[in-house]
């Protein structure tokens, strides 16, 4: 996290002095605004925090390790189109990432015998080793961040995020 993120003057309530001119204090719309704002900031900070740590230790970009997890978690082999949909990324971006992963022997791709227009993808042993390296950084960092949360709080927050995600899928 950057130094600026931790400074008191960067806190929303310190600089957003006219906020309640737009959102009535204690209102539902204020609660929705503050929740969505905090969600965005938390996602950005988490992404920065974890990206920096993983890249420094392993050299892997987020696109690489998230794609490797997507392949490893799937019933393999998986088609590139299915992987794109499951990960919520655009197909052309995924193909670029897959090209990079294949050039590093972290995945293997071949034509789908059931549909010659598509390709199948699976993770290699090298890819599994790369994921193990990522997990050595990711898991302790995640635990460090969430250590002060009760398991029930994590479950409730997860359920809330899943509901939110499903509403946005429509």
Automatic annotation (TrEMBL):
Pfam families, A to Z: MarR_2
Keyword check for Transcription regulation: yes
SMART domains cross-referenced by the UniProt entry: HTH_MARR (SM00347)
GO MF entries: DNA binding; DNA-binding transcription factor activity
Record bears the keyword Transmembrane helix: no
PROSITE patterns, per the entry: HTH_MARR_2
InterPro entries registered for this protein in UniProt: HTH_MarR-typ, MarR/SlyA-like, WH-like_DNA-bd_sf, WH_DNA-bd_sf
Gene3D superfamilies according to UniProt: Winged helix-like DNA-binding domain superfamily/Winged helix DNA-binding domain
SUPFAM superfamilies: Winged helix' DNA-binding domain (SSF46785)
Top-level taxon: Bacteria
GO biological process, one term: response to stress
PANTHER family in the record: TRANSCRIPTIONAL REGULATOR SLYA, TRANSCRIPTIONAL REGULATOR, MARR FAMILY
Protein name: MarR family transcriptional regulator
This protein's UniProt keywords: DNA-binding, Transcription, Transcription regulation
Limits of the HTH marR-type domain: 32-166
Organism: Altericroceibacterium endophyticum
């Amino acid at each position: 996290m950057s130094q600026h993120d931790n400074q008191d003057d960067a806190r929303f309530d310190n600089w957003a002095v006219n906020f309640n001119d737009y959102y009535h204090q204690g209102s539902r719309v204020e609660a929705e605004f503050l929740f969505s704002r905090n969600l965005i900031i938390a996602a950005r900070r988490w992404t920065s925090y974890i990206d920096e740590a993983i890249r420094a230790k392993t050299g892997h970009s987020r696109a690489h390790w998230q794609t490797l997890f997507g392949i490893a978690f799937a019933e393999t082999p998986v088609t590139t189109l299915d992987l794109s949909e499951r990960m919520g990324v655009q197909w052309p971006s995924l193909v670029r990432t897959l090209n990079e992963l294949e050039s590093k022997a972290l995945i293997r791709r071949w034509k789908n015998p059931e549909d010659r227009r598509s390709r199948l993808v699976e993770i290699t042993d090298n890819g599994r080793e790369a994921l193990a390296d990522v997990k050595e950084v990711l898991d302790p960092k995640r635990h460090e961040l969430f250590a002060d949360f009760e398991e029930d709080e994590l479950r409730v927050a997860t359920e809330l995020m899943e509901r939110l995600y499903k509403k946005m899928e429509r």
